[in-house]
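Morning. Coffee machine broken again, so started the prediction first thing and wrote up yesterday's gels while waiting. Chain of 219 residues, entered below exactly as on the submission form.
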Amino acid sequence: MKTKLLALSLVLTLVGCSSTKLPNIDPGPVTAINAQKLSTNFKRKGVKLEWECAWGTSVLGAACIKGDIKAIEVTAYTTSNGNSETNRETAFKVAEMKAKAKLRHFIAEDVYSSTVKNVMAKNVEKASDRIKNRIKSDSDEEVSMSDEDSSKETNFAVRENSNDTVRTVTESIRTQASGILKGVHVSDSSIVDRQTVAVTIRWDKDSESISNYLGKKFR
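Came back before lunch.
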């Protein structure tokens, strides 16, 4: 009898456990570890860098650490100065050229700076002289002079100096960037508004490898 009661109790316990439902927990969106990427934005320059993940170990497991640069994207804007197809296509071309120039300046640029100081001085002197006549003559004749004439101040010199000085300081800064861009291609072209377009160029390791391969193939 005890054996039957024990078996019945065990069956009821198993049925109760199987009928109990656990609450559903939504883990949310999960991104595969190998799909994660790191990026750095230079918004003022319109440059975005993508980095490869160098997997390391941490307390919580594998961690994505910055590795080598994987790709570079540069965005440039320009106005179309009109709504026609010709103006728009020209604007796209100009924006592409501006984006390539920004990329080249971001990679490396030469800076030339010079300061020049010029000083110009002009000195003008004005003179006005009055000299008293000689009183004694070569002859033995006497020369008479009244008291009023002798009291006059007739020997004097007036001199005026005028100096004009002009100083100018000129500072000039010139930047230059030149080089070959391999594997750079237009990844996106869009119309921002009625008279503004944007072009994004992209470089990555795959496009550079293709460029090098084609360069050797069709040399």
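The radius of gyration is 46 Å. Going to sketch it on the whiteboard this afternoon.
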